[in-house]
Amino acid sequence: MKARTLKTKLLMMTVGMMIFLALVSVIQFERTLKYQKQVALGNFQLYAESLSRTISSQFLSHYQDAQVFANALNYTGNAKENGRISQALTDLTKLYKAYDLMMVVDADGNFVAANTRSSESASINIESLKGQNFRKATWFQNVMNGHLTNDRVKGIEGTFVEDVQVDPITSQVFGEKRLGNSFSTAIRDAQGKIIGVFSARANFRWVEQEFQSSYANLKRARFDTASLALYNKDGFLAVDYNPPANNGNTEIVHDFKDTLFKVNPVQMGVAKAVELSKGRSGSLAGIDVRAGKNQATGFVSLSNEPKMLSSLGWGLSISADFDEVMAMTVSAREEFLALVCALVS
User: Fold this and answer.
1) Per-residue model confidence as pLDDT tens digits over 227-247
2) CA–CA separation, 256 and 104 (whole Å)
3) DSSP state of 164
4) In whole angstroms, what is the distance from residue 287 CA to residue 294 CA?
5) What is the C-alpha to C-alpha distance for residues 242 and 310, in angstroms, rounded to an integer?
6) Nearest to 47 by CA among 333, 302, 300, 338
7) pLDDT, tens digit, 9 for 90 and up, residues 200-210
8) What is the longest distance spanned by two Cα atoms in the chain?
9) Tens digits of per-residue pLDDT, 88-108?
10) Alpha-helix residue ranges (DSSP H) falling in 73-107
11) Cα 324 to the center of its chain, rounded Å
12) Alpha-carbon dihedral of residues 124, 128, 133, 137, nearest 10 degrees?
């Protein structure tokens, strides 16, 4: 009888010890999973930071292009040189394919010259620009008055930048809505007097192509539900790149009617957009009220980039379904718990 009681006690102690060790293992494993969740979210922030750096570098190049091109034209104000200027602008547009249109106007805002072919060498209609005056245009007035989009702290000076918009000039020339932003600067004579304004009208594909490249990398990493967005300083969507919601189509879609510059995720209370509106960068997980799904997100305020104007106020985010991001971790958790149950039972 005593031997049976001792045997029972030893069995109970063994079972108890196994349960205790199992609980300790579960607690430790859950801590590891929590850390892995933080790592997974951190990786999405790294994706966003990489895209942010690429866009910022491109931005600075375009900002500086305007000044380099303006000086290289050797514009003197002599109307006899307009043909030469037009050919030079056409050559530059063919070489630097980010631009839909490069144009020169004189100090009174009168049209002087523009490229006559697109970056793909197709003929474009600039007839509507001839005889047009741009003295009331925001970019012209700001350049003439010396109100440039500078960031002296970052050493970015000398060009006036228009934020991303449906560009009225390129839309007029190409006969369709064109998304883009412009980089404009003064043309001066030998005495430093402003004798004209150079304006490079960039197609926003210079940003959108980077979004496509980033998505391709995410896709290769098996984040099939990934989506990317760019927000302007007012919180409106300027790029809404979501191939999974577009039947996997990776082409850029410009929904001017219902989405671009119409949807404001900040006003909707979308957490990542709200954080970006405060100039913050980071990562988070939770229900995205616009997508209606639990997502993991990395987000970056481009204002913090050394090659980007702080005043532009752009922000970007990269998101994917939380379950997809945590798939390997969740699978490991389920397998571990099944193993623990098997050992205890």
Assistant:
1) 999 999 999 999 999 999 999
2) 29
3) S
4) 4
5) 27
6) 300
7) 999 999 999 99
8) 120
9) 999 999 999 999 999 999 999
10) 82-95
11) 22
12) -60
